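Title: Prediction job returns without error message
Component: structure pipeline
Severity: low
Priority: P3
Assignee: unassigned

Description:
Job completed but the reporter wants confirmation the result is attached to the right record. Sequence as submitted:
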Amino acid sequence: LIDQLLTWRAASKEMMELSLETHPVAEAVNGAIDRFNSMVAADERTLTVSIETGLCVQHDAKALNSVVLNLLMNAYKYTGTNKEIRIRARDGEGEVMIEVADNGIGLSAAEAKRIFRPFYRAPRKGKGEAGGVGLGLAIAWNLIGQHGGTLSVTSTQGEGSCFTIRLPAAETCHEQ
């Protein structure tokens, strides 16, 4: 909790110093997937992975890894017993998109508008209070903004959510 509060304070004041390097995002995304897999047993969920990106992005791999892990953990936390989570990284026109989708409880339109605000926590219908303090998505939104990108959500109640990171592609690339 203290680490999250300090991270939020630094990120919200744009004091968090990012180490931006220009590389493909696959390594950072795969690192988050590996961390997720080490935290959540494979028999507790279905995870579908599609990494189809070759464009380079100026990014801090540690920060991007943390954002993607946060999205994966939220997808896990806000789904029922049949947890189906999909992660996809793909190239768009002048950008790289990373999508994390689930078959969870979804969000109302009002919740979707507030989800990136600090300390906001969407209710877990039928499950009581969600864990955490409502800083993960606010920190993620801020970090992606510092990368010159966006973080958005599309959601339907009872059907799930899809969080999309959009990062501008770099003109030059330093392959890893």
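Comment from assignee: result matches the submitted record. The mean pLDDT is 87.
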